[in-house]
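Board work, copied verbatim: SnoaL-like domain-containing protein
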Amino acid sequence: MTKTEIAKAFSNGEFDKTNKFISENAVWTVVEEDNFIGKQSLIIVNKLEIIFNQ
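↓ predict structure ↓
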């Protein structure tokens, strides 16, 4: 996947496609909500998003 494809997949909630590309030191800032720090944190948040959006 290209960087653009990874970004689009992440933005579209296709987290299963992006997890292998996330750095161990990643930081995801959700505006007006919170900062999620580290790969495991992002993966957990992604899984919760999937569950709550079903």
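DSSP finds three helices and two strands in the chain.
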